[in-house]
Each structure stands twice: as C-alpha cells, then as structure tokens.
Write a structure and sequence with these properties.
There is one protein chain. The longest helix is centred in the last third of the chain and has 18 residues. It contains nine helices and seven strands. About 40% of the residues lie in helices and about 15% in strands. A five-stranded mixed sheet has the order 3-2-1-4-5. A two-stranded antiparallel sheet has the order 6-7.
Length: about 240
C-alpha cells in the first residue's frame, strides 16, 4: 500500500491595515508573516514553493453589473451576506477618488460604489499588478466568511465578538489538523505586531480553502462565469 500523500504547502492572505497578512500551512506548521506589498507575497510563495495562495481580495472584475460568484456566495452566507461587498467594476481601477469611482461605476453598471468597496481598489490594483492572469490558478480569490460557512456548515456569529472568535477557532482547529490550539492567547502570540485576531482567523480559513483548491476539493462559486476582460477568473474559491 502506498503511503498517504501529504497536503501541498499553501497560504492564505488577508488584507490587513494596508499590508498583507500571510498564513502558510506547510505540513504540521502554521507560519504567519506580514508582507508590505503583494510582490513580497509572491516572493514568499516562490521561496516556500507554495502550491496555491488564497487571497481575500477580488481578482476578476466585471465590466458591468455584478458577478455570479457574489450572488451564489451571498445565497450561502444568508444573514452574513453583508460581509461580501459588491465587487467593483473594472472601470474604477484607475479612478482618482471615490466620487470619480462612483461616476464611473454608475455609468457602466447603474450603481455607485460604496466607500467600503472603493477602499479595496488600491489593494486590487496591487494584487493584479503582482499576479498576471496566467498565474490565477495558483493565486486564487477567497472570501473568508464564505469559507467559514462552508467549513462550519452554517453562518457563524460576527467575527469580532467573543462567540464568533471561539466558533472560528473551534472549526479551524478541527479542520486544519496542524496543531492549532483552541486558545486565543496562543494564536495571537504568533501574529505579527499590530495584526488583529480576526485578520489571523481570516488568513487561516483562506489557507484552508487554498488547500482544498490545491487538492481538487474546493467549492467554486461562479464556476461557469469565465474570465474578465483582463483574463482573471470571475470566481470565488471556498
């Protein structure tokens, strides 16, 4: 009988306060790093020979209207659907400011852009500048709250509440099988300075989805939507 094949090394990346928190799952280890730019994330992925890197950031952008992936994910999220912001249209990528982005979005999609979604635009530009479309099967879009619902089988309490944190630690500890302690202090102690607890938990569940994608077991929202004009898939991996 052949020995079991080890899970390939993967990572989950969460945008955290103008930087990128990266959680690497490699065998039985979990390593956290704070990268200032997404180029640094790519360098880390190459250095650690990561099979898949999940990223909590939109990659494929619609020309007009919304994405099927977002609609499908919101249906799963139920009462937590508001955690998935509408994906900005491609036309806003080089907008000068929020007002300009609203004008551009309204012109092509019939709706303005929320300030929360606009605040993602610089990070989206950075991500797409570092990852070409040809690499978009190694670097994949993941939405943490969607992954948590997929993992837990039901929506969880808000992630910044004590109950929500405890629920996420419990399901991650069971799913990752990598020695993650269900003790908040121990998890926080491994985080880079200034990184919030919910950012760590989000990065870890994104890594869980990245591992599922690497092993061909992921759930794909927007599977039949194809790619955007630039060639990035219009999908969410969970």
């Amino acid at each position: 009988m052949s020995p079991p094949v080890a899970d390939p090394p993967v990572a989950g990346v969460d945008g955290a306060r103008g930087a990128w928190l990266t959680a690497v799952l490699d065998g039985s280890s979990i390593d956290l790093a704070r990268c200032r730019t997404f180029d640094e994330v790519v360098d880390l992925a190459d250095e650690r020979e990561l099979a898949v890197v999940g990223v909590d950031m939109p990659m494929g952008l619609p020309d007009a209207g919304g994405r099927a992936a977002d609609r499908e994910a919101r249906a799963l999220l139920g009462p937590r659907r508001s955690t998935l912001f509408p994906t900005p249209v491609a036309a806003v990528l080089d907008a000068a400011d929020h007002a300009d982005a609203c004008r551009r979005s309204l012109a092509v999609s019939g709706r303005k852009l929320s300030i929360q979604a606009f605040n993602l635009v610089p990070m989206i530009r950075q991500l797409r500048g570092a990852v070409p479309p040809q690499a978009s099967d190694r670097f994949v879009e993941v939405h943490p709250e969607t992954s948590f619902v997929e993992l837990a089988g039901e929506p969880l309490a808000p992630k910044r509440t004590a109950t929500g944190i405890a629920q996420r630690l419990a399901v991650l500890s069971a799913a990752l099988g990598a020695g993650l302690e269900a003790d908040l202090d121990e998890v926080v102690a491994t985080a880079p300075s200034g990184v919030a607890v919910d950012d760590v938990l989000d990065a870890l569940v994104v890594a869980w989805s990245a591992r599922r994608h690497a092993t061909g077991t992921a759930r794909i929202f927007g599977a039949g939507a194809g790619v955007d004009t630039a060639g990035y898939p219009l999908r969410i991996i969970a």
